[in-house]
From TrEMBL:
Its EC number is 4.1.99.3. It comes from Ostreococcus tauri. Residues 25-159 form the Photolyase/cryptochrome alpha/beta domain. This is Deoxyribodipyrimidine photo-lyase. It comes from the Eukaryota.
Amino acid sequence: MAPACSKKRVRALTSNTEPMASATAPVMYWMSRDQRVDDNWALLRACDLARERGAPVVIAFNLLTKYLGAGARQFGFMLRGLRELEAKARAAKATFAMTYGDEPAAAIDALAKKIGAKTIVCDFSPLRDGVRWRKDLAVLSEKRGAHVEECDAHNVVPCWEASDKLEVGARTLRGRLAKRYPEFLKEFPAIPDDLVEYDGPAIDAVKWDDLLAEALKRGEAVPEVTWAIPGETAARAVLDDFVANRMKLYEKRNDPSKPRALSGLSPWLHFGQISAQRCALEAKKAVGKASPAAYDSFFEELVVRRELADNFCYYCPGQKYDEMEGQKYDWAKDTLRAHAGDKRPYIYTLEQLERAQTHDDLWNAAQRELRYGGKMHGFCRMYWAKKILEWTESPEQALKWSIYLNDTYSLDGRDPSGYVGCMWSIVGVHDQGWKEREVFGKIRYMAYDSTKKKFNIPDYIARVNALVKAAKSDFKTGEKSSAANPGLFSIDVSGVKRKADAMA
Ligand SMILES: Cc1cc2nc3c(=O)[nH]c(=O)nc-3n(C[C@H](O)[C@H](O)[C@H](O)COP(=O)(O)OP(=O)(O)OC[C@H]3O[C@@H](n4cnc5c(N)ncnc54)[C@H](O)[C@@H]3O)c2cc1C
């Protein structure tokens, strides 16, 4: 049978470029960014290698105790998704193993040694830690003659195939991606059903309840949101609901008082519980229910903008994607520096911002949506970050605080799209110079008065007030009120649970 995964998606991280074909030792997939069984090129690549040599597949996941400010909200979502994944992997005859520790390369290497894995496939991350961890694993593995490679399972067009340099913006990346869609934007094969089962040294059972209890306790300052059901099954239900019922509204995506127009998919995309390529394929099939224009706009965000964010984080100067220095172009840094001494109309502390205690009712609503709902409407995100630039001491502080707030409260935080969103708003990344003004210099400005002409601010505020009330009550009772969902969409929760339970 022909390999399922194109070699163009894969590149070696060790110098022994060809995977070792000798052993019947397991092929290990170190799963990190792409936490799913379905539609996962990295897992398919591991299956290709395993089938070539009649070897089993072991999926290893390393659990950190802390990661970029993630709390119970994010760890809970991830662990519950992984618990479902373990059952799904088992059904596909792949074995799931958990390792622990804040130096993932060492933990993964120790497991690989224990089970005798000499071939390790990693998924790809453009973020600094992710790049370093994979390099560290390659160094450790090479010492024992093992082969490590990475497979971009997150992007439709692998990041390094799309471009080998920092792109100026969507207009330069769009065409490059489009040329490669015939090669990469294809239907996924199923996981092969003839994998050999693992029967090597015992792998410790994962104590899910204990892990969850510990993570929820440790991160209790930011509790889980109840509307976002973790896992692949729920992710697919959100996608199906969006393409069938809501994509037709997508042209209204910039109206925060009508949030059903958005897909709401970013939490599941961030944790890799669904593939963006799957979303693109299903959206295409739904043209007819939604207009071609709605599909085109959705595709632009889902693929072009999202993959542009990976390009930026991977190739920006020094990989400083969360600092002013990550902006390559001097016009933006120069203009911000030239206006660093401008008097700010208001100055707020981090605590005032966190508690939504500003003079601006729209900004406060957006911050409350983030804090209690775990996801802020996409349009408000831009306004919200720009006002942090306007109301803090310096652009450096604005960038730091916006990333802190986003990563602390957003389910989809700690993502390339988040770093780029903050960098676009505050440091002009992927943007151009605009009319010069106080504080912002030539960075694009957003005003309350012009925003209020674009959508009904009181309607948005009323919706957020209802959300906060529902969320506070859900935090206490564990109920799942639809009003607590910032996207106001609903999926068949009991159907999702039935499907997930059937796998377990
Ligand atoms: C200040 C700021 C912070 C942001 N923080 C994050 C973040 O932490 N995580 C995150 O995933 N996105 C972030 N974004 C980008 C964007 O706002 C969100 O992806 C979007 O709101 C997610 O909601 P959705 O899935 O319902 O969006 P939809 O409009 O339905 O979009 C579908 C998908 O397309 C992608 N997408 C949409 N807009 C963008 C964009 N502007 N840039 C890159 N990809 C995009 C996302 O993967 C999204 O899930 C941020 C933007 C700004 C301006």
